[in-house]
Amino acid sequence: MQSLFRRLGSHWLLALGVAGLAVPTIIAVAREIWSTEDGSHGPIVLASGCWLLARQWPEMVQVAKAPALSRALAWMIPSLLVYLFGRMIGVLGVEVFGLMLSLYGLIFAFGGSASLRSLWFPLLYLAFLVPLPDTVVAILTQPMKLAISQAATSLLQAVGYPIANTGVTLQVGPYELLVAAACSGLNAIISLSAIGLFYVYLLHRSDWRYALLLLVFVLPCAIFANFIRVLILILLTYHAGDDAAQGFLHNLAGIFTFALALAAIFAIDKVLTPVRSRLALK
């Protein structure tokens, strides 16, 4: 442990440098990403991820073995170049990605590969802070938006509502609604994946096989929850008007359906308890 603290002392400038880079980036992320529905999970991930790092730090100290300075620099220099490139071109996703690589490199410089293995989950969990590029979001959300729009239209037509759709545009009575990216389920998938992983790791410390199994259920839960959300918003618009559906009730519907999906993940975890036990014995 003493050798590690001496190593920390010798790298204080590097640690301060990474911290200095993190401050403007986190401020930019908070202003541009966390204030939107797309990145609303960010503050929770950052706070809980830092808590996980602090919680597992003593465990990491026991196995840490600092590498040669040349190996640490071979990691840090490309990471910092990625960060600077993101700053120069003004792409926040690249900037955050470079910052995360720099954080990983900083931990590697302090404790080597063993420290990264010891902190594998907090570091993986913090990767949810990296925002997806807009082009990737558009590619991923378009088929989900189309599927949800068509399913909602078919269901409401079957029970007698005057509704039709053209792509992701819905006409219900005198109103026209657009199924946005936020209603596709991608944001819920990302948020539920992060919270689901945190839940499984913290409560069960399960191995990667069970975590992967639980993640398989995140996709249908998130898409179904957003399907319910779209149904709620359509019915609110038709019965209470567009102003009601786009105001406080719009946000409330999002919170309700996310809580519903999260409860479904917890329930699935309980149902899969025997599977988790069998995996733990292997």
Automatic annotation (TrEMBL):
| Cellular location(s) | Cell membrane
Q: One biological-process term from Gene Ontology?
A: proteolysis
- Keyword Heme assigned to the entry: answer is no
Q: Which Pfam families match?
A: Exosortase_EpsH
Listed GO cellular component terms? Answer: plasma membrane
Note the topology in the membrane: Multi-pass membrane protein
GO terms for molecular function, please?
peptidase activity
Domain of life, per lineage:
Bacteria
UniProt keyword annotation of RNA-binding present: no
Q: What are the transmembrane regions?
A: 12-30, 92-113, 119-140, 178-203, 210-236, 248-268
Keywords on record: Cell membrane, Hydrolase, Membrane, Protease, Transmembrane, Transmembrane helix
User: What name does the UniProt record give this protein?
Assistant: Exosortase V
InterPro entries attached to this UniProt entry: EpsH-like (IPR013426), Exo/Archaeosortase_dom (IPR026392), Exosortase (IPR019127)
